[in-house]
Specification:
Layout: E1 7-9, E2 12-14, E3 20-27, E4 34-37, E5 46-53, E6 60-68, E7 71-79, E8 85-87, E9 91-98
Length: 99
Amino acid sequence: PDMASFAAGPGWMKFPSGKIIQYGYHTSSASGAIIVNFPIPFPTQCFGVTGAGTDSSAANIAGCQVIDKAGFNLSAWLVAANSVFNRTATNISWIAVGI
């Protein structure tokens, strides 16, 4: 395809098919979920978002829940001894796909 049919900005890229990939980096909160706004709202819908902890010194699990076309909830848990999960503030990289 003609390269003019691609679009991009900080934290997002749009393909000629209309599909959009967005990505970013946020710090979760130990007190509960935080709302993360996408760099741009998805025009039609967000198919899904996933995240991963970037702290190599701890076993963290990230949880991402789509709210709407504009953002999602982000939570993280530290996996402690005896499979106890505690909310934690940690750095999370995330990626979302939509149209």
